[in-house]
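Internal QA ticket QA-208
Title: Verify multi-chain structure generation after dependency bump
Assignee: T.L.

Test input:
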Amino acid sequence: MDALIAARWQFGITTIYHFLFVPLTIGLALVVAILETRWVRSRDPKWLRATKFWGKLFLINFAIGVVTGIVQEFQFGMNWSSYSRFVGDIFGAPLAVEGLLAFFLESTFLGLWIFGWDRLSPRLHAATAWLVSLGTIISAFWILAANAWMQNPVGYRINPITGRAELESFLDLVRNPMAWHHLGHTVLAAALTAGVFVLAISGWHLLRRPDSPVFRASAGLAAILVLVSSLGSAISGHFQGQEVADLQPMKHAAVEAHWETEAPAAFSIVAIPLQDEGRNLFDIRIPRVLSLLTDHSWTSEVRGINDLQAEYEGTFGPGDYRPPVAAVYWSFRVMVGAGFFLIGLGALGAWFMYRKRLHEVRWYHRVALLSLGLPFLANITGWVVTEIGRQPWSVYNVLLVRDSVSPSVSTATVLISLIGFTVLYGILAVIDLYLMAKYARADIGEETTPAEVGAGLAY
Amino acid sequence: MIETDLNSLWFLLITVLWIGYFFLDGFDFGVGILLPFVGRDDLDRRVAIRTIGPVWDANEVWLLVAGGATFAAFPEWYATLFSGFYLPLFLILVALILRGVSFEYRAKDRRPQWRAWWDRAIFFGSAVPALLFGVAFANIVRGVPIDAAFEYTGGFWNLLNPYALLGGLTTLLLFTLHGATFLGLKASGPVAERAHRYASLLALPTVAVAGGFIAWTLVEAAGGNRGSIGMGALIPVAAVAAAAALAALPLLRAKRDGWAFVATGVTIVSAVLMLFMNLYPRVMPSSTAEANTLDIYNAASTPTTLRVITVVALIMVPVVLAYQAWSYWVFRKRVTREQLSPTG
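Actual output:
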């Protein structure tokens, strides 16, 4: 193993781990803000109790999201100093803006939210919840704008003297269509994650106490959230896919294990991609559907991996410019499969709610509980598609990953931090799961005043 | 002397961010380090933690923004520093991760064993960064081996030289003292009393160690290790740091808690300011060759980028300061044992 491989593993492990928590907390921040607002409007204590119950689970996960986020910002410099030097003129700005616009906002108002129950008026207190939620979404935009620039570099030029990328237009960076596709899909996925989380845990309680007002209200809200956000994720994902086909044709072809250029192009449902031979061992395909998905046309041409590889060698010189096809092909199908399943879950839930029997359909709650892992699986496989699909580039068509690593950091050093972070993150995962299980199963409180809720949330 | 350009403005902004970070998270670290000493029972320890509970996370953001601002304004500095000081940064990250979850998680289970483990995590999670930030900054000021490609070539052990260790001891003691005066101001009852006692106990050794570090820095500066700002400007700032540290002791004796906290705060602000003034316009002096020294020009982003982030910073920094100040105002009262529910 060399430093490059160790640095890549470290980025993969720490980023995937971080992103287990991020969408859940973006979504739960929104859910908590909605619940508290409903309490402020109605003064029905069930909403106050629901705010506390889900708020506690939000805080347990937010803590890990915050601390693992620090590693994300620092490891560009630690493991990827050549990357940082090359793109710093462009990539650093959104990170700095994220800190100034979002991190201060969410951390300050989260402190006020946790500890301010008996010091702020209920309306002002609910406003702090909305500001935390706003902070998480602003944060998402800027980090996704940074990532989108790696996928679709815009508004820059290469300085012929230094050989580095330089910013030409910040507006182009902000308007990068990839960033907005990223944002829509990611925030909808976050809402979906929180929706399934609330639906599943509410279901667990409703199986025991079908008359619990707090969990009936929570499940109803969650079912709507799951339906709306899963449909939204599918639609936004479709247009994001078209954008990828346009801007990153190699990634798009790899995601579909589409080796040869075809017009019209068939869509592969199940395949075993053979990376070395440049073909699929086994492939079940539907004619024309890939053309339809890519261009809304029955006949259009979709370029294949082998063609693109030949073209890239012509442009960039000899080398393998294909991402690992099987990894992105299957990750994409897992993500889409999970997403469609969750559309069904949301639709059924909304239907039962409409019929006013959501609280009593026991099999549905069992299914919801079993689905708890699916949004997390979809979130991770989605990023696997995006990031592994970007390989071998760190900045698409501009900088290779192998040219991005820190030259002065030894393999042993990266290994120490790789092992250290992995062990630490593993321990935190066990603790987080223990606390989640404990507080997800806890009985609902009897709180009727904000001060009581505050005493239960503060530390 | 000082140039009036965007590069200098960003050097100043990053200086302000680090000053803010060390002032604010400095007392968080101090509270964490003192936690086992000022808290005899669980309720005491909760009082201590509650004094920083609503604010520590936002205080830590100053570090994140300092890091992000360095990346944006001086990417070469960010790349050299973060890849060069890899292992200390790794240890700081581990410590900050542990500390960050500890506050939240210790409260989530009432078993004494559970809380004892998190208390240890808070102690080490606070002490390790308090020590290592001083080591890191002393090394930056002292200069480290950097080659012509701006890569750090010094390895890990090179960072553990006497000057840097004295710098680490300085921040460790200073932050602990700062935390003690903060607890004296914000806690009440036995916690505040014990904090007050530890502050009185720590004040003299802190003055001695910090004074030694500042004096050493000035001697090196007089010997040539400084940027374009003259000794005539460095010495007064150093004198303010020393005077403020010295003033803490009588203020503590007179039980002027607020002023004692101001004194430790001024010590931190002026000591960090002096270090950055000593650097300017350099950001990472190379001990290998003067030509390899990173400064605010050869490490900087282009004027285009600097202009963009300047606009954002000039708009956002006052807004951030306003709402952070408001949150301190909301939580201005002392924390008492009585206000904390005994069952929590």
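Spot checks passed. DSSP finds 15 helices and six strands in chain A.
Status: verified.
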